Amino acid sequence: MKNIIGPRLSGRVQLEAGHPLLADHFPGAPVAPGSLIVEFFAEQLRRQALQPARPMEILRVERFRFREFIRPGEYEYFIEYTEDLSEALCRIKDLSGRVFASGCFVLHIKRS
User: Which of 44, 45, 70, 99 is the most exposed place for a label (fewest CB within 10 A)?
Assistant: First the structure.
């Protein structure tokens, strides 16, 4: 297991029941598609990669686990980096702290 250097990015995200991406997944009982959650984390990493201090690219996604359906509501997300910055470990939790999904992005840090 690689050492974690602690939370580097966190925040809250609101999933709206009426959002078009949830309309067909599933009618009458909307849940976020897993691909939407993975893409959300990838977008957060891409935004951070635009900062000059941390230019990076995503090589692949590994070990994403969905423990429960992510239904409309407010959630907290966390992205932590391994000490060597080769992986970004991601979690999304409800406001009580229950983890709904977690996974890892393997990264390549662009050195100048």
Answer: 99
**C-alpha to C-alpha distance for 75 and 94, rounded to whole angstroms:** 5
CA angle, 21 then 41 then 7, to 5°: 145
Residue 28 falls inside a structural domain: no
**Residue closest to 9 by CA, chosen among 40, 34, 31, 33:** 40
**What is the residue-averaged pLDDT of the chain?**
88
Residue 27 domain-assigned (yes or no): no
Q: 28 near 72, Cβ under 8 Å? A: no
Q: How far apart are CA 30 and CA 72, in angstroms?
A: 7
Tens digits of residue pLDDT in 18-66: 888 888 888 888 999 999 999 999 999 888 766 666 678 899 999 999 9
How many angstroms separate the CA atoms of 63 and 112, rounded? 30
pTM of the model: 0.88
**Domain that residue 53 falls in:** 4-16+33-109
Q: How many domains does the chain have?
A: 1
CATH classification at residue 11: 3.10.129.10
